[in-house]
Backbone:
């Protein structure tokens, strides 16, 4: 996996504070097209705020995040809407429309491209429908195209959400704890799907995880966040137990926590 | 949007706090907040005020048990004289009953269309701007505050006697109630899908038709059916002000002391209301 060309995402000395409490402190890292970066760190390390800053949902107090060379926090109106299309989001709770079919949920990724009357009457047309099914096919969900979203399992819903990002044709995919609510088998299939999407389409993927053991075989690089700082940035091959301790801190190692809180 | 939740998460060592809390079980129980208990004197004052207000209300309502005792035998006499129910002009009564149903159905349908348009500016999660939302809420509250009966009186003066005035009366009042309930249904939907669609760059119109309406559709239909049930009952009295329906017949029968006919009319109303309620609740049970 070689990652050439300009980085899709450049996070440069990004800081953010809620009132007096700093959440991000001068966070910097780049992500190349087709590269998968796993962001790990305990709850409250600033992962969600990092993602919201990249999307321009919260304004950083210092530094900047560039998506395809553009800083979303400085944009507004139409320009912001267009730039945001470059960023696809995957959420812990999938965020599909429960009563729409899988295919219709994928079409939501392309709503801006539909003619107004098609959008309002919810008639996307044969072309868009075929495109949606093709996107579902790439995440292994084509057979469920007509199934209502709320009849699908969590892992299936998350793969439909990935298909929605594919339909959106984003260059950057941000996944905030995408497998936190899933059983191990579904989690593995969702992460494999993310990996394949990155490699096949050259999409840069940033994925936050709290299960460190899932990093291997999925990510190219591991970035550790601790109390708002980058505590670690290594290729996945170099990621070892000592790094784990560095990210989570010796006092919070799982075995110790279990002893104190049965 | 969930900014306020973040600082708590960001406090270093917050996950440890839970642990120390667990083994600190021997601590003394915390006192309940002081505000939950009122001092005795204030309790007594409040009770006294409540009793005084109620007594005033009883006086204003001119509650008079003696009048009721005197009136009861009169009503019993009417009841006795109303048997057997009259079947004279039954076909006309049935047409009038159908008119009442029609007033409720058309009035509710008009209100539903208007509510669908008004609920978007009135819902907080779709219209964060107070400049738009507050006037929308005011318009809905004003319509809700004026009863169908009062609207019907106004429309009888404006468009003349007959069921059309009643239909407009029902439509305006129902618009207020239904628009508010629609907006509340929308405010109750999960925020995630909405945010996900907005982040694709889709505008308000597209988001509403692809994310909001599919999600809240069963809720809106349920509200509309509930309003229809309510409006059937509300439409019965509209005839009294000349706004069409079986209410006019009801008033005539009372004025002429024609009790067998009154009995028939009341039976028709009961059957009509029960039938619409049953149909509506069956339809609502099928919504998923």
Residues:
């Amino acid at each position: 996996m070689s990652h050439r060309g300009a980085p899709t995402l450049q996070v440069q000395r990004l800081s953010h504070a809620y009132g007096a409490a700093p959440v991000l402190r001068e966070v910097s890292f780049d992500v190349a097209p087709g590269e998968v970066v796993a962001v790990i760190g305990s709850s409250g390390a600033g992962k969600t705020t990092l993602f919201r800053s990249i999307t321009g949902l919260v304004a950083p107090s210092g530094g900047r995040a560039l998506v395809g060379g553009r800083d979303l926090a400085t944009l507004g109106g139409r320009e912001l809407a267009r730039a945001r299309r470059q960023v696809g989001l995957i959420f812990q709770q999938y965020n599909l429309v429960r009563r729409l079919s899988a295919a219709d949920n994928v079409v939501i990724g392309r709503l801006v491209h539909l003619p107004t009357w098609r959008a309002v009457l919810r008639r996307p047309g044969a072309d868009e429908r075929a495109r949606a099914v093709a996107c579902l096919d790439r995440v292994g969900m084509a057979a469920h195209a007509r199934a209502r979203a709320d009849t699908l399992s969590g892992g299936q819903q998350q793969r439909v959400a990935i298909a929605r990002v594919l339909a959106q044709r984003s260059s950057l995919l941000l996944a905030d704890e995408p497998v936190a609510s899933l059983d191990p088998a579904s989690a593995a299939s969702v992460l494999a799907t993310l990996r394949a999407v990155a490699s096949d389409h050259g999409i840069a993927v940033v994925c936050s995880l709290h299960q460190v053991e899932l990093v291997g075989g999925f990510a190219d690089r591991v970035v550790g966040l601790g109390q708002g700082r980058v505590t670690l940035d290594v290729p996945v091959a170099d990621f070892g137990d000592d790094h784990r301790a560095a990210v989570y801190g010796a006092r919070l190692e799982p075995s110790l926590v279990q002893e104190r809180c049965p | 949007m969930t900014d306020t939740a973040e600082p708590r998460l960001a406090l270093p060592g917050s996950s440890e706090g839970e642990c120390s809390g667990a083994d600190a079980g021997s601590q003394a129980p915390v006192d309940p907040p002081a505000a939950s208990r009122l001092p005795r004197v204030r309790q007594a004052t409040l009770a006294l005020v409540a009793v005084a207000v109620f007594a005033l209300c009883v006086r204003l309502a001119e509650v008079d048990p003696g009048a009721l005792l005197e009136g009861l035998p009169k009503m019993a006499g009417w009841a006795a004289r109303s048997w057997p129910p009259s079947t004279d002009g039954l076909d006309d009564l049935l047409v009038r009953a159908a008119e009442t149903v029609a007033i409720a159905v058309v009035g509710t349908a008009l209100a539903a269309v208007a509510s669908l348009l008004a609920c978007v500016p009135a819902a907080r999660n779709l219209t964060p701007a107070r400049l738009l939302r507050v006037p929308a809420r005011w318009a809905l509250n004003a319509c809700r505050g004026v009863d169908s009966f009062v609207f019907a009186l106004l429309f009888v003066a404006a468009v003349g006697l007959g069921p059309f005035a009643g239909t407009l009366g029902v439509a305006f009042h129902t618009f207020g109630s239904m628009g508010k309930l629609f907006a509340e249904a929308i405010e109750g939907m999960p925020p995630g899908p909405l945010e996900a669609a907005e982040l694709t760059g889709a505008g308000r119109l597209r988001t509403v038709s692809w994310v909001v309406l599919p999600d809240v559709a069963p809720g809106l239909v349920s509200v509309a059916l509930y309003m229809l049930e309510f409006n059937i009952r509300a439409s019965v009295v509209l005839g009294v002000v000349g706004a069409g329906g079986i209410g006019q017949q009801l008033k005539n029968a009372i004025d002429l002391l024609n009790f067998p006919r009154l009995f028939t009319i009341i039976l028709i109303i009961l059957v009509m209301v029960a039938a619409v309620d049953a149909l509506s609740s069956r339809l609502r049970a099928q919504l998923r």
In short: Chain A has two domains: 1-86+171-262, 95-169.
